[in-house]
Design goal:
Elements: H1 3-15, E1 29-34, E2 38-46, E3 51-56, E4 61-65, E5 81-94, E6 104-105, H2 107-113, E7 120-134, E8 139-143, E9 149-153, E10 168-184
Antiparallel strand pairs: 1-5, 2-3, 2-5, 3-4, 5-10, 6-7, 7-8, 7-10, 8-9
Length: about 180
Amino acid sequence: MSRTLLSALAALSFVLPAAASASAQEPPRGSARDVVAVTARVEQVNSFARSLTLKTADGATHVVYVGPELTIFRELKTGDNVLVRIVESVIVEARPGAKTTGITDTTAAANKAGTGRGDVLQQLKAVVTIESVDLPMQMVVYKGGDNRRVQRQVSDPRLLDGLKAGDVVEITYTRDRAITLQRQP
């Protein structure tokens, strides 16, 4: 499994607890945010795909799609240090009675259904069952298709409103292209 996919899976496990239950009548809930700006070293520039392979100081590798509006892309080379921000979103949809799943990569389908520009760098989906919610501690415990119990702290406590043990939810995590990119000294 590539480090990029492992990074995405780690990111997904971080955002999975952001799930909130919804009744069958409610539309999916979404949580979009800018990722905290990350400084990393350029490991590879792929001009054809307009992507950068970046390595952070802690050794994590990330692949970032850079749209044509960010003209600095043409100037970057291996070894450059950059500051990048990307958009990530989470959509949570109630799936009463659904079978839990492992993480499924739906990136190709998302790009095909979207603009065709390849703006979606990665999209992952999973159906999980909520085991418990601790509102004061902002903690949630859930199980996915592998029956592994995962405990995570939720960054936005409002996403726990109405969430309870036994809820089955589908989480769609999407990472889009870079929104800012700057060379760093």
